[in-house]
Amino acid sequence: MAITNQTSLNNAKVTIPALDTEQQPTTDSDFDYSKRAQWLRAAVLGANDGLVSTASLMMGVGAIKQDIKAMILTGFAGLVAGACSMAIGEFTSVYSQLDIELAQMKRESIRRGEREKDNSDEEEKGNLPNPVQAAAASALSFSVGAMVPLLAASFIRDYKVRLGVVVSAVTLALIVFGWLGAVLGKAPAARSSVRVLVGGWLAMTITFGLTKLIGSSGI
Fold first, then answer.
1. Rounded Cα–Cα distance for residues 160 and 38 (Å)
2. Residue 193 to residue 13: CA distance in whole angstroms
3. Which are the contacts of 96, defined by CB distance < 8 A and separation ≥ 6?
4. In this predicted model, what pLDDT tens digit does every residue of 92-112 receive, in sequence order?
5. Tens-digit pLDDT profile for residues 109-127
6. Fewest CB atoms less than 10 Å from the CB: which of 2, 107, 180, 189?
7. Where are the domains of the chain?
8. Basic and acidic residues: which segments have biased composition (predicted)?
């Protein structure tokens, strides 16, 4: 009898509980980077627009006026006007998108019938775009970008040195913004940086050249 019990114990199988894969932490490879699209788009575009538009305005004024006060006031006016414009534009755009998605959700809910309505509606509402968040991100990022050329030109009295410092600071900031946007969105960093840099250079060159041409023609 003892031998039988010993044999049973030896033949007993130890069952190891299976791991619940649903409770495993989400890895970096499983993260959906498309969820960042809303705020990332507003932030990156806002920073680039603030940087390029303000720098272009300052370069345009600098093409015909060597006064540092005129350049700084122009840049500051561009910062305030651009931040307000970006915030309002982003708010109205995202709010329109929100109205469209809410209307679509309502139509789908009616088609399913109230009896089949469940918690999925609440989850869908949580993933809807936020107009206030998008507007705030756009205005803030625009202001951050616009501060780069303003700070670069604020303490340089010499005209030619001031223009060179502004161009250098903007060039560095364009590379950083392009790289940052690519890294956060898991996109090719080099291609993004080059694209942003070339666009910024073109904007400043065209603004400077056309303003210089019009100013020298006596209009």
1. 40
2. 60
3. none
4. 988 888 888 888 888 877 877
5. 787 765 555 555 556 666 7
6. 2
7. 36-213
8. 109-118
